[in-house]
Specification:
Helix content: 10-25%
Strand order of the largest sheet: 1-2-3-6-15-8-9-10-11
Shape: elongated
Radius of gyration: 54 Å
Distance between the termini: 87 Å
Structural class: alpha+beta
Number of strands: 19
Largest sheet: 9 strands, antiparallel
Order of helices and strands: HHEEEEEEEEEEEEEEEEEEHE
Length: about 375
Amino acid sequence: MTDGTNPPSNPQPEPAPGSGGFGPAQGGYGFPPAQPGGYGFPPAQPAQPGPPIPGGYGYPNQYQQQPEPTAFVPAPQPDWEAMADRSEEQRSRRRMLFVSLGVVGALLAGGAGWYFFAGQKDSPDNDKPPVASGSPSPSQSAAEENSATVPNEPTQLRDRANNGTPVQLAMNPGVELVKMENRNELRLKGGAESFAQGNEQAVDVTKSFTVTTRVYSVTETGTRMAISQGDGVSYSFELGFEVVSGKKSWVFRVQTGEKGAAATAQQVVVEAPEALKKWTQLTGTYDAEKKTIALYVNDKPAGQAQISGIWAGPGPVQLGRTRHHGIWSGSFVGSMDRIRIWDKALTPEQVAVVDSGKLSSLGKPKHAWLI
């Protein structure tokens, strides 16, 4: 180990001129002085006169004079202490630079955050509570938002209109909710347990309203009502399929008298020659100002009727059945989806786009299920 400098050199004495490096020399390193001839050879004889021969091996005193070797001069060594000082100074400058950049970044981030929250002060979403730890992720929230049922209530159809008080529909054992590729549909098997019932009325029938649903019937006999309202002695309105005067028909019917008598029922009927196993959009409207009801099939007008008004019987909205003379009847057999109710009478021009799904021009429905 050294301190960075080479140790002092100890040059050996140069051989005597003309000795060739191997002649007699003073003893050294513990050896006696060399004898003439050296190494057991006899002494060299004097050279005979003759022409000079360039110096060569075996010809004493005839070598050309060689330049003396240059003494070794050690290479200059760096100033290690100065270099260490400079390195430490550079590291200190870098540390200071990183600290400065961190402070600037923190200030910029804080300013951006303040600007963001200040800019959101007047946002309509500002009143929403922050998402707490353990809350559903955005993907979970989106899935729940598009769910056909109430969260944690798989037998409750969710009212997706979010317009006022929601009406949830409780499904009974004779009903099956089936998830299709991009929608959900309700399948009803028919019978006493094949229905879904709301927790309250969906519409005030004394005022204008529109009710619509898409149906897929698998039977063409009897009375098969897709949607109605009322659980007293009679329905207030009903919409679905019925054989009328021996003809398969689509029907929208309302009750004008509190006794539920056939004489006080008013209806619009249109033949349904292709009702079996075919998706059909049914829409019924009531215009309280004009006192008219109208029926639309696949968004096209099917007829209308003048009435005196609709009797507001008690009881909630029903899917898959209706109330006649104090008993349940009209069990629907098939599927349905796209159920909506507006608290206004849609015009023919508005109804014309119901099945297309382009409902922005119609305004938000009051209630909606399976959309």
